Amino acid sequence: MDTLIQDLRYALSQLRKAPGFTLTAVITLALGIGATTAIFTLVQGILLRSLPVSDPARLYRIGDTDDCCVEGGFVGDNGDFDIFSYELYQHLKDSAPEFEQLAAIQAGQNGFSVRRGDALAKSLQGEFVSGNYFSTLGLGAFAGRPLSESDDTPASAPATVVSYRAWQTEFAAEPSLVGSTILIQAKPFTVVGIAPPGFFGDRVTDNPPDFWMPLQSEPYVHGPNSYLHHADSHWLYPLGRVRPGTNVGALQAKLSVVLRQWMSTREAYTKTGGAAEIPKQHVVIVPGGGGIQNLQLEAGKGLRMLMTLSSVVLLIACANIANLLLARATTRRADMALRTALGAGRRRLIRQVLTECVLLSCIGGLAGLAVAYAGSHAILALAFPDAKNLTIDASPSLPVLGFAFLVSLLTGVLFGTAPAWLSSHAQPTEALRGANRSTRDRSSLPQKALVVLQASLSLVLLAGAILMSKSLANLEHQNFGVATANRYVLQFDPEGAGYTVERLPALYKEMEDRFAALPGVANVALALYSPLQGNNWGECIIQQGYPAPGPNSKCGATWDRVSPQFLDAIGVPVVRGRGLTEQDTATSQLVAVVNQAFVKRFFPNDDPIGKHFGIDFPQYSGAYEIVGVFADFKMNNPRDPIRPVFLRPLAQRFTGFQEPEMISGETRSMFVNSAILNFNGPQQNVEALIRRTLAGVDPNLTVADLRSFDSQVVGNFNQERLIARLTSLFGIVALILASVGLYGVTSYFVARRTSEIGVRMALGASRSNVLTMVLGGALWQILLGLGLGIPAAMLAGHLMASQLYEVGSYDPQALLSATLALGLCAATAGFVPARRAASIEPMEALRTE
């Protein structure tokens, strides 16, 4: 212990004597360790996080992908069934005693209008869950009690449990909330409990639930729009706790058989050749301790890629540190030789140098934690700019602190070993004759090899950064087909304010009139949802006079219910026929306008005007008459090709459906949620004006969201923008580190060979000869790095292909740009010490010798 303390004191003394070296090393390590730790913080908080519940290791989910939110027919991709109806959930629950408990959770999450007493209504997130939800997770309540199975029956009084965070922020932590009544969608619910602190729900998300309601209260909340008892409407995720010793593989095979047997009894799956598809259907049972993995599936690839890139930055930083340590070891050779001459053992010298290296890396690690803390918070702010109650903790946890410490320790040991070894081999004779007389330099080759490594890795990061930047530019500047300037999108909830279908026409008319009367308003449109909002209503199209589509037919189309000015409000022209008008009333012929992709898919060889089509069932194939065709635009995911789209008038409702789920869906579609306001030019205080106008229509109408159409569109690319920015940042840091490394090695080369250069110049070498010699040696290292880096960059581009949009994984322009950037910085870094070498005076160099 005394020896260790002596080594630490000596190491601190040596670091204080070389402040430039110490500061450079600490900053380099802080950047490398900080970047890696920041990304690992997010990996741990998103991908590796377990739910704060009892024994999460025994939780399993039936289903493994993100299907949302209400689906019908063959909802699984390639037979992979991931979302279930209430009836199917009950059937699985009864068929699987291997689960101690099996809970059902709403696949999507909704905003609900919530009001307590005389306070103004708020838009809060709610989630329907089965009555055994909290007991399945092994949770009690902070106050009151959790939901129970007795709350989840048709005869039960409506009950809800409020999250601890919502209790504090939305209800001012009032103890009287438990047992009181709140209005959810204008329906009274009794608050029976407050969830435990720290519990954020069944999934990691940027907008967790504020309260939970039993499944059986869904018809009570949604009335005729309910889908609880629609056997073929799938909207639930099952999550259960398996009994100890359960063979999950055997359980998965068993439930797949149960699924297929159930489907064979349903006409929705056996009709029009669907029976042949049933044998392909199956379920996948996956660990559920981390909850429903929707966000993990969305962000997983990007986070893993960033983790790889940050590790490359760390490797480049470590190579720089190794170069600094090697150079420092060489300059201290005389000191080590003298110690050896005075009797110091080799092991003692190695331990002393390693102690200094590890201490330096630990100081860099502490600085890296500060970088990681600030970086992870900044990354989350960029990734989720609209998050209100983010469940991801960006503060370093114990695993993150352990990770940073381990990285720091390994950095010090691995990259301090070579300098320690070189220092321990200093010969005593060097101390007697003077270090400057030694011509041997064992560190030169390793240093140059490290520069080559830095150059190749930097090229990989630079090329990757250029690919991601081009991909982001293609995404953001593609032709969406809509006009976004001077337009605002208001999202509201008439159902939450207590409106019925019969009262909706008067509400919509008053909203249109009031908003149209605002100064500068050119168009006002109401819609079930707005373009690129992240929503989608889709149906299978049945053309009149055509054969019914089979289960593998590409019959899907997106649809929306809109007011007559919708296309004008978003700047989309009608290219054939007419648009929707005020004459398309509840008593007139049911009509629709379709996009060009719709015509290409369903009527490729016919004039679509006057043609009829229906949805889902052949008997409805004559429901809607096509009266116009509008230009294509991106309605849904901006990364995907344009889908077929049809628009229906706000005032028209099809009353011919016989199936309960079809009737319910048609009724739900009457409750529009978006208003689009198109102004003639830029306006002042638009948001306050829109809010006041909506409150003037009805103070019970809550604003679920209000933003410019521009921000709604660009909000689709938050993650891509984040990844592109971080990749570019990593590329720039790598370029700087590689340039610094080359500069350091070349400067060290000049310093060590000052006498040699003086002799050369005394014997007739010109300054240009010296400049060429030094600069050529530096550039050869970069050329070797390019030779290794170009194939590696091509491989990295192939691995990044899934993250790219309309950019080839092999992009010559990206490789050329990265090569030129690296070459330019390398030439600059090498030129400065080369010019210094060329300015050496021969006589001064010889006198030094």
* Structural class by sheet pairing and helices: alpha+beta
Physical arrangement of strands within the biggest beta sheet:
4-5-10-7-9-8
Helix tally equals 25
**Shape category:** elongated
Strand content: 5-15%
Q: How would a textbook summarize the main sheet? A: 6 strands, mixed, barrel
Question: What's the total number of strands?
Answer: 24
Q: What is the radius of gyration computed over CA atoms, rounded to a whole number of angstroms?
A: 34 Å
Overall pLDDT score: 85
Low-confidence runs (pLDDT<50, min 5 residues)? 435-443
Summarize the structure.
By secondary structure, the chain is an alpha+beta fold.
Chain-wise SSE layout:
Blueprint lengths: L1 H16 L1 H29 L11 E4 L17 E2 L4 H10 L3 E8 L3 E6 L6 E8 L3 H5 L5 E2 L14 E4 L1 H6 L11 E4 L2 E8 L16 E4 L3 H5 L13 E7 L5 H16 L3 H4 L11 E2 L1 E3 L6 H38 L1 H9 L4 H38 L14 H27 L3 H6 L10 H33 L10 E6 L11 H13 L4 E7 L9 E7 L12 E7 L3 H4 L4 E4 L13 E5 H7 L9 E4 L8 E7 L14 E5 L10 H9 L5 E6 L6 H12 L5 E6 H6 L3 H35 L1 H9 L4 H33 L12 H27 L3 H7 L1
Parallel strand pairs: 2-12, 5-10, 7-9, 17-22, 19-21
Antiparallel strand pairs: 1-11, 1-13, 3-11, 4-5, 4-8, 6-9, 7-10, 8-9, 14-23, 14-24, 15-23, 16-17, 16-20, 18-21, 19-22, 20-21
Helix pairs in contact: 1-11, 2-9, 2-11, 2-12, 3-7, 9-12, 9-14, 9-21, 11-12, 14-21, 14-23, 14-24, 15-19, 21-23, 21-24, 22-25, 23-24
